[in-house]
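FORM 7B: Structural annotation worksheet

SECTION A. Query
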Amino acid sequence: MRGGTRARWAAGAMAAALPLAACGSGTGAAGGSVLSSSWGDPQNPLEPSNTNEVQGGKVLDMVFRGLKRYNPRTGRAENMLAERIDTTDSRNYTVTVKDGWRFSNGEPVTARSFVDAWNYGAALRNNQKNAYFFGYIEGYDKVHPDTGAQSADTLSGLKVTGPRTFTVRLDQKFSTFPDTLGYVAFAPLPRAFFTDHAAWLDKPVGNGPYAIESYTKGAQMYLRKWDGYPGPDKALNDGVTLMVYTDSNTAYTDVLAGNLDLVDDIPASQLKNVGSDLNGRYVNTPAGIIQTLAFPYYDKAWNTDGAREVRTGLSMAIDREQITKTLFRGTRTPATDWTSPVLGPAGGHQPGLCGKACEYHPAEARKLVREGGGLPGGQVRITYNADTGSHKEWVDAVCNSINNALGNDRACVGNPVGTFADFRNQISQHRMSGPFRAGWQMDYPLIQNFLQPLYYTNASSNDGKWSDKHFDALVDRANAETDKATAIGLFQQAERVVRDAMAAIPLWYQNGSAGYSDRLHDVALNPFSVPVYDEIKVG
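SECTION B. Predicted structure
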């Protein structure tokens, strides 16, 4: 989407040293057919168009189903509530919603459920973080202008044409538009969301296989299986208790002690032991996640031609092979482009695109940093969220590598922020003064999703405010292209613009990892590195 798309910022393992009071089972792991899983408090209220980070996304992916759903094995966009989505020109779409779907409060899911939700998400007055996801729908400039107040209440490109049909008119051709509709920003909303918004925020109501039963911030959320769920992916357990953690090692040891059923990211310090500790109850699978270092281009010191050389020099000062081998033990792979291998060559992944700039060359690194005018302020401080041990370990390793390469033991230091929510708030407020951790988890397996949300001018997840007119023009051309192969080729050209500017430093591709107790069976992670909760069996 022009201007951005939904951001799934990868929080990493979020765990807390809190009493594990699971619903209906006293303390310890959840009882009966309810499982307990590590989690972190969401940054924002759980509105679908206002959730752009992983922890809130986990909940919404359990509570909502949209027109499309991404296959938990392949990531392929498949019809869920969409009976069909028709177009003859890749600009005008007719959507037919399947009959028989309801929200967990009994309301029917209709065409209006989608249109009202999308209008709400797009409106400037509602201040939704994922508003730009609706940026290609005609009339967006009126409901969400770049400056001034909105002059319309609804998107002119959305029309309800029947109880189960509506039309979407885009402001230009966008051939892969239907594939984006599995993202939860496009989820339907019940009338209760609008008639008693405060009550809905206290206890969100959706149409997915689970319903939220209770939530205590800083402690836990309990989601029960919704027995009336009409979809094909009914929950195979009775519910999930999401336990808030602020230390990933605590979550891991709680799994070992039987106090927690599932930790969905293994701390780096435990990777050497996880196989034996859990007797094989360990999942390690490729995921659409890339870790990068982003930069604050709103700080003039980082937005010069010399700074581009400095960024490239810093990239060449990072020994990715050594760090991924010794610290991550097979759960990370050195990044050589800005997307993910899960796309495959046909999907646009270009292995080796970064070339020498993503290899360890300390002498060249020193030369580039010197020629670029030196480190801004004389030192780089890598900002990261400290509520997981994993980030501190790799940030320290990256800084050690940079310090060794540059021959200066104070060239790079870590700058921890207490919690993921605080970290994201500081980023959103443009308070970064140097590089910061930028883990990106794909929303859908398209090259567009790795590029446009992060690097398009004023995109909703372009936190560093990097901007390049040539990149933007290539993205616009790619989105308007009806031939998929041609579109991918244009996105690949756009990625080369990112490379030439070293707009962000690619670090490594990330696998999804999870460990679980002997109570659980059929534990799997989807290509987004999120547990497929509805398929987990307990007992």
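SECTION C. Observations
The two ends are 44 Å apart (CA to CA). The first helix runs from residue 54 to 63.

SECTION D. Sign-off
Analyst initials: ____
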